[in-house]
Design brief:
Blueprint lengths: L3 H12 L14 H20 L6 H28 L5 H24 L7 H16 L11
């Protein structure tokens, strides 16, 4: 029999559509890892709220929080790369711009759709973000501390 804590975690994970932080995403740079974890949490909140009776205003606040976190993180990550003379800054910046294009598309769809959002958008964002961390950010391991 499952205890209540495990049940809550399982329920939260189901509602988050599998959007959870896992240790394989850890870079070893605490500030960047913390930001990645915060972004993951916001994406999970967005997924859990999407397609429910949550108001458009509440979804808008989550989206706004996500945009703010992403902007701050991408700027920080690019500064980290410059400060530590990491290779690939142009590619990283281009990928961040692709992410913001995707976010802007989702925001536009959200506004045009009467401030409704289904789970497709948060799932797409998570897949992009996770792939970016695995394929690009993990290359930053060992390049410096911040």
């Amino acid at each position: 029999m499952m205890n209540d804590d495990r049940l809550e975690i399982a329920d939260a994970t189901d509602k988050a559509g599998g959007i959870i932080w896992t240790e394989d995403l850890r870079l070893g740079t605490p500030s960047l890892d913390c930001e990645h974890q915060a972004i993951t949490l916001i994406m999970a909140r967005l997924h859990a709220a999407a397609g429910t009776a949550v108001t458009g205003e509440a979804l808008g606040l989550i989206l706004s929080d996500l945009v703010d976190q992403l902007q701050a993180h991408c700027l920080h990550e690019e500064q980290f790369m410059r400060a530590n003379r990491c290779p690939g800054i142009a590619v990283q910046t281009a990928q961040h711009n692709q992410l913001f294009d995707l976010v802007q598309q989702i925001l536009g769809d959200f506004e045009r759709g009467g401030f409704q959002l289904d789970t497709t958008a948060p799932t797409t964002l998570w897949r992009w973000f996770r792939a970016h961390v695995v394929e690009s950010d993990l290359r930053l391991k060992g390049w410096g501390e911040w």
